[in-house]
Amino acid sequence: MTADTDGAAPAYANRLTRRESLKLLAALAASAMLPALPACASTSTQDAAAAGADEGHWPELDLQPVTGNGYGKDPDLMSPPEAPWPLTLAPAQLSLLALLSDIIVPAEGQSPSASAVQVPTVIDEWVSAPYPDQQRDRLTVLSALAWLDDEAALRFSQPFSALGAQQQLAIIEDVAYDKGQTPRRFQRMAGAFARLRNMVLAAYFCTPEGMEDIGYMGNVAIAGDYPGPTPEAYGHLETVLAELGLSGFAYRVA
Amino acid sequence: MNDAAYDVLVVGSGAGGAMAAYELTRQGHKVLMLEAGRHYDARTETPMFRRNADAPLMGASTPDKDFGFYDSTVNGGWQVPDEPYTTAEGTEFLWWRSRMLGGRTNHWGRYSLRFSEHDFKGKSRDGLGADWPFEYDEIAPWYDRTEALIGVCGTNTGLDDMPPSSEGVLQPPPVPRIPELLIAAAAKKHGIEAVPMHRAVLTRPLDDRAPCFYATPCGYGCSIGAAFQTTTSLLPMAQATGHLRIITDAMVRSVTTDADGQVTGVAYIDKTTGSEKQLDAKVVVLAASACESARILLNSKSARHPQGLANSSGQVGRNLMDSTGAGLSALVPALMNRPRYNEDGHTANHLFIPWWGHKAQAEGKLDFPRGYHFELGGRFAEPGAYVGGDLQGYGPALKQQARAHYGAYVSFALRGEMLPNEHCYMDIDPSVTDKWGIPVPRFHWRWSEHELKQVAHGLETAKAILETMGATVGELPAAEDAIKKGGEIIHEVGTTRMGDSPGDSVTNQWGQTWDCPNLFVMDGGVFASNPHKNCTLTIMTLAMRNSAWLAGQLKAGAL
Fold first, then answer.
1. For residue range A217-239, what is the model confidence (pLDDT) as tens digits?
2. Nearest C-alpha of chain A: how many angstroms from B112?
3. Which of A143, A160, B377, B518 has its CA 20 to 30 A from that of A6?
4. What's the CA gap between B198 and B220, in Å, rounded?
5. Mind listing the pLDDT tens digit for each residue in A31-76?
6. What is the distance in angstroms between the Cα of B45 and the nearest Cα belonging to chain A?
7. Cβ-based neighbours of B436, under 8 Å, separated by 6 or more
8. Interface test with B, best of A74, A103, A252 (most B CBs within 10 A)
9. How far off is chain A from B477, nearest CA to CA, in Å?
10. B60 interaction partners in chain A (CB closer than 8 Å)
11. Contacts of B242 (CB under 8 A, 6+ apart)
12. Residue A237 and residue B63: Cβ atoms within 8 Å?
């Protein structure tokens, strides 16, 4: 997806003055993001733009709401609509989303990466849906994408996708954990990242490849009685019942 | 047959209406059924085996499909297009409807628990609410017949909350899954039994219905007829007699009466044309759902019935009850990274926890009067639009966390009995009408201390069991915050309650209105109380029993 150039780009952020970083952010908002999504205007908050400020920066996107119809109250369940509503992510946003999706779920052993099973397309459909929950997620996801480019510009003077893998991961490391010790300036992005991470995982595990990865074995017709747990599963239960001191209370399966 | 040839006009094709049609046609009576929704064929419209990935938004709930894309509900949910309802200022109430043949039986949970002698005589025991106008022993044979007809899997547990079915009535239940077995052991340590849930899901063939093949959530509907719904059972069976005619897209506005105040038929809107039509019948049976039937009665005012039809008691719309609902779930470390196998089962809980506190209540050891049960959740469910777990990081380590958490959460869904109270009722909104100009219901709601104390007890109990399983639960929410909204459990009943006296009830024990002998109610509206057990089995059982009585009256020429 991006050239793997370890440590190639110099850390420009350290050399930037506050004024210059503000200007850079404004330019990014105006040039990089806006053409990609005409309906969206970004004005980074003032403190925000100040690199190193406690609050951090945040792209205050002014999104036009997605209007239009949903799939209605009597959709065809046998043949779900292939394209229930127009997709709204611009090519650059989709590419960045794909890059991020593959950082969250890379290829691993037999399991493909997120983008290889069209996770970004599922998320595009999600954030383009005319329903309240999805509209909230749209703001979250688009803000997260814009934040990544803003942060990349502040630190490395380039859009996120132009960074080397180590630089990208340096940013992701700062926002991918939210255990109470996240610095304030990363907390808002950490929340947005968590939501996006959950969407990527959900879209991934819904695919046949993802179901195999997580170990979902249902949705197959069984002839005769439901077979229930395997001997291995019963064995595991016996172990945990013993560990919890519950063996004497075990339910007797006929 | 022309319309005038029908003996009985049944409004509604759900649990009550379809059972009434089944029993009446079986006994040779001509029935005309009106359904406000569209025709629906579960055999061709049910999305069996469809994956979440094939649905928009991974099948997630939306305002268009409140229970997810594949839920069978047609043109319904918490809101029906062009058919609003209102709530009084400062109160909240949710009203689930569907506009389809078979009504809500197409998607219900299929939980089928008998009410017990305790349940029918609560007032005699604690002085609250109302007793039912018959004894458990009188209805027990009808429970047997209904269970055998619809097909219920489960066992006779011998517990005082679960009266036994006759030998050979129940079909064998599916074996429990691992999380249920762990919960059962932890509960047992607290002296609480988990036992097989009773569900209207076939595990053996019945008539032309196939047994469950343990795939596809029952809420989608069931094309093979394993999960009971009227569209694959009672309705086709009644039609096979040649005595049933069904008109869909027929929205009843009112029950019509003559100058003497006697019922003559109904007025309805043909939704396909928007025109109003009139049908005459010897007998009218309302089974449109508790609140819809009460709405029809309250909208059927005349000089002889100035408060609405069958409402000389003033009780139509009163005594509105739902089940209490609350939930508690937690990650159980002992279930993390456990061996995989197919845990779909019949897609709902195989084990549940029935109410265990009758004795404690009798001894005055509990600070609330009525019981509840727990429906148990937690399994390797089909992945959907949201992934559980306190997930951190990214990459292979993240995916490993997700795998570890999969199937490691368990949940307790409390469903409890509420008592009727003067603040919970429906009337007709004085200014709002639906698309056809029919005045709409207005709901009033307030939980009492009884329900809040019950929910608090349930949360504490669930927490204790979870902690025994090694889960960390944390601080419990206040009962006021944890309790679901009125109507949210979709067990609304009581708005045309039955009783022993025309002074404080709307119908007698046969669902026959005190005011009009040829007008019956056969939905959940007739419930005198709302035991914690889900209402549908008892709606059907009463409809069968009372239709049999009605058939006897017709044969005797009494109506």
1. 999 999 999 999 999 999 999 99
2. 20
3. A143
4. 19
5. 444 333 333 445 555 444 444 457 899 999 999 999 999 999 999 9
6. 6
7. B251, B253, B269, B271, B274
8. A74
9. 22
10. 133
11. none
12. no
**B461-494 burial by CB neighbour count: b if 16+ within 10 A, else e?**
bbbebbebbbbebeeeeebeebbbebbbbbbbbb
Crossing angle between the packed helical segments B178-189 and B449-468, to the nearest 10 degrees: 110
Nearest C-alpha neighbor of B375 from the set B201, B123, B197: B197
Contact B183, A235 (CB under 8 A): no
pLDDT cut 90: percent of chain A above it: 74
- Among A228, A238, A223, smallest CA distance to B175 is for A228
pLDDT of amino acid B398: 98
Q: pTM for the whole thing?
A: 0.93
Whether residue B399 and residue A197 make contact (CB cut-off 8 A), yes or no, is: no
3-state SS of chain A: helix, strand, coil percent to 5?
55, 5, 45
Burial B199-233 (b: 16+ CB within 10 A, else e): bbbbbeebeebebbbbbbbbbbbbbbbbbbbbbbb
Q: Of B177, B214, B394, B406, which to mutate for an interface test with A (greatest number of A Cβ within 10 Å)?
A: B394
Confidence label for A178 from pLDDT (cuts 50, 70 and 90): confident
Residues near B166 by Cβ (< 8 Å), separated by ≥ 6?
B144
CA-based nearest residue in chain A for residue B65: A73
Residue-level pLDDT at A44: 55
Q: Which long-range contacts (CB under 8 A, 24 or more apart) does B358-365 make?
A: B358/B118, B358/B160, B358/B161, B359/B160, B361/B126, B362/B125
Q: In whole angstroms, what is the distance from residue B184 CA to residue A193 CA?
A: 38
CB contact under 8 A, B45 and A77: yes
Beta bridge partners of B278: B267
Alpha carbons A75 and B524: distance in angstroms, whole number: 29
Residues with Cβ within 8 Å of A181's Cβ and at least 6 positions away in sequence, in order, are none
Higher pLDDT, A5 or B479: B479
Of B200, B227, B223, B234, nearest to B212 by C-alpha is B227
Q: Could you list the mean pLDDT of each consecutive 10-residue stretch along chain B, which spans 559 residues?
A: 75 98 98 98 97 97 98 98 97 98 98 98 97 98 98 98 98 98 98 98 98 98 98 98 98 96 96 97 98 98 96 98 98 98 98 97 97 98 94 97 97 98 98 98 98 98 98 97 98 98 98 98 98 98 98 96
Query: Which spans in A157-230 are helix H?
Result: 165-175, 184-205, 208-214
Tokens for B517, please give them: 């002998």
> Do residues B172 and B203 lie in contact, with contact meaning Cβ atoms separated by under 8 Å?
yes
Of B104, B146, B49, the residue nearest B231 (C-alpha) = B104
Supply the ipTM of this predicted assembly. 0.95
pLDDT of residue A251: 98
Tell me if A57 sits within 8 A of A49, measured CB to CB: yes
Q: Return the CA Rg of chain A.
A: 23
Cβ contacts of A172 on chain B, cutoff 8 Å: 394
- Residue A155 makes CB contacts below 8 A (sequence gap 6+) with A11, A12, A13, A167, A170, A171
Name the minimum distance, in Å, from the CA of A54 to any CA of chain B.
22
B509 backbone dihedrals φ, ψ, rounded to 5°:
-65, -10
